[in-house]
Amino acid sequence: MKRVLIVEDEVAIREFEAINLKRVGYETVEAGSGEEALEIFDNDTEGFDIALLDVMMPGMDGFALCKELRSRSDSLGIIMLTAKSQEMDKISGLMIGADDYVTKPFSPTELLARVDSLYRRVSKTKPAAVSKPSTQIESGRFVLDLRSRSLSKDGKNIELTQIEFQIMEYFFANPDEPIGRTVILHKIWGEEYFGEEKIVDVNIRRLRMKIEEDASEPKFIVTVWGRGYMWDTTAT
Questions:
Q1: Domain spans of the chain?
Q2: Listed residue (103, 127, 102, 130) closest to 117, CA to CA
Q3: Could you name the CATH architecture of 2-124?
Q4: Parallel, antiparallel, or unpaired: how do β-strands 2-7 and 221-224 relate?
Q5: Considering the entire predicted model, what is its pTM?
Q6: Does residue 105 have a cis peptide bond before it, meaning omega lies within 30 degrees of 0?
Q7: CATH class belonging to 136-231
Q8: 130, 150, 175, 204: which is deepest, by most CB within 10 A?
């Protein structure tokens, strides 16, 4: 069963989200606050695929909850729901671990399209059965393990979200080749994704903060002017 944790303090909105998700086959669990959501998540035994988090909530807001959930799970898909349209609010959510954002008010069609798209990406990143042999791709100081869905640098594990792992997997499959952000967007988020391309830039920035010695002067994920981003093997 595809499971979604809905966190929204307004009952009407929460029920609206739950009803529409249930209609297309999702199992939903609802929480009216960030604190309640954490308690549910920590005590749940079945696991969640996606969490829908309202940003503006009393007590623990959506940003704080996103940070807590991401620290507990790298594979959980997180979508931020916000009435704010300011650029920094969107970027802030993505930088602390969210995978996508939807600005209120939104239609059932948009919500379901975003959830479906993210669920497909989440399901692809679930680890394969332990009985299968480990498949690793090495690039200098880095090792990408396709079975455990993990990345290490100099033997030390680097925690990645499922979106970040997919981007790194795409880079490793196309070393030293500039890739446009539109191409990355379609490859990772899907051609049906109708969000903004800047989500690619934010995830690249987040990746650089994790793998570069100096994120302000990247050596591994470099920008090729006018062509896109490139995994530079000469630096690895």
A1: 2-124, 136-231
A2: 102
A3: 3-Layer(aba) Sandwich (3.40)
A4: unpaired
A5: 0.76
A6: yes
A7: mainly alpha
A8: 204
